[in-house]
Amino acid sequence: MAMDREQTILEHLTELRERLIKCFIALMVGTIVAMFFVEPSLRLLTRPLGDTIPQTLAPTESLSVYFRIAFIEGVALAMPVLVYQIVAYLLPGLLPEERQYLYLLIPGVTISFILGAVFCVMIMLPAAINFMQGFLETVVENRWSLDYYISFITRVMFAMGIVFQTPLILLFLSKLGLVNAKQLGGFRKYAVLLTSIVAAVITPTPDPLNMMLVMVPLYLLYEVGILLVWVTGSKKKTQSEAESA
After folding, report:
1. Residues paired with residue 145 on neighbouring β-strands, in sequence order
2. Could you tell me which residues come within 8 angstroms of residue 172 by beta carbon, excluding any fewer than 6 positions away?
3. Phi and psi dihedrals of 33, rounded to 5?
4. Integer Cα distance of 212 and 199 in angstroms
5. In this structure, how many other beta carbons lie within 10 angstroms of the beta carbon of residue 78?
6. Distance between CA 161 and CA 167 in Å, rounded?
7. Residues whose CB falls within 8 Å of the CB of residue 214, separated by 6 or more in sequence, listed in order
8. At 11, is the secondary structure helix, strand, or coil?
9. How many CB atoms lie within 10 A of CB 14?
10. Could you tell me if residue 50 is left (phi over 0), alpha (psi between -120 and 50 degrees) or otherwise beta?
11. Is the torsion defined by CA of 160, 79, 23, 92 positive or negative?
């Protein structure tokens, strides 16, 4: 569709419908592919429970959990297509240089989301689950429903996947001219406070150890974002000086 003129409302709605259809198709394909990997994924997600096997309380609970995991993994597989369709729909409002950086960031969004989910499953959740299993163990028996357990796990995984986008968000904001490395460096003390608040919200347990397991990586992600902004800013400055010479 031509982008050299302002689109009418009908054209915007038509384009939005087409892109939503493509997103739906990508989600369907991703979910179907993910269905072949649900069982090993479920074993991985329940590994923090150790020898404890989660129970099902309803006849359809296992089935609903199966399709929920397949859908979540389908979203991860389809994320490059989803992000591309969103970006493509927003392109008329962006400059050519901004479009270029967005295209470069699309693979990074998917990789960052997967890294956040992996960090959650391999590092964050085992410590949190171990704490919760031992809480009041002399008074109650902690045998959790599969549905409640997977719902809890996937919520935390999704939150960490979003949080791991921090460096890319900072980089994109810098390309829009909204922030620079010097400003972000001066914001460090506020970043520490903000990451501690986010960690307190995301962390599934109230103990300081688990909170630190989340807070430290969050702040490191902020520093990675500053580094990316500084490196790309330095390259752009060097190119500008070379062109003016």
Report:
1. 55
2. 101, 102, 105
3. -65, -40
4. 8
5. 24
6. 12
7. 124, 160, 198, 199, 202, 203
8. helix
9. 13
10. left
11. positive
**How many Å apart are CA 209 and CA 221, to the nearest integer?**
19
Q: How distant, in Å, are the alpha carbons of 53, 101, 103, 152, 173 from that of 229?
A: 46, 12, 17, 34, 9
Strands (E), 23-175: none
Q: How long, in residues, is the chain?
A: 245
Strand partners, 55: 145
DSSP category for residue 58: S
* Token reading at 220: 């490191």
Q: Which amino acid is at 16?
A: L
pLDDT string in tens for the chain (245-residue length): 444 556 678 877 888 899 999 999 999 999 999 999 999 999 988 888 877 788 888 888 999 999 999 998 898 888 888 888 887 787 666 667 666 767 777 788 888 888 888 888 888 888 888 888 777 777 777 778 899 889 888 888 888 888 888 888 888 788 777 888 888 888 888 888 888 888 888 777 667 777 887 888 888 999 988 998 888 776 555 555 455 55
Listed residue (25, 57, 38, 26) closest to 143, CA to CA: 57
Least Cα distance to 191 among 210, 158, 165, 218 occurs for 218
Other C-beta atoms lying within 10 Å of the C-beta of residue 109 = 22
Exposure pattern of 117-149 as b/e (b: 16+ CB <10 Å)? bebbbeebbbbbbeebeeeeeeeeeeebebbeb
Position 93, amino acid:
G
**Contact predicate 68/24, CB 8 Å:** no
Distance CA 226, CA 224 (A): 5
Closest CA to 233 of 160, 146, 167, 171: 171
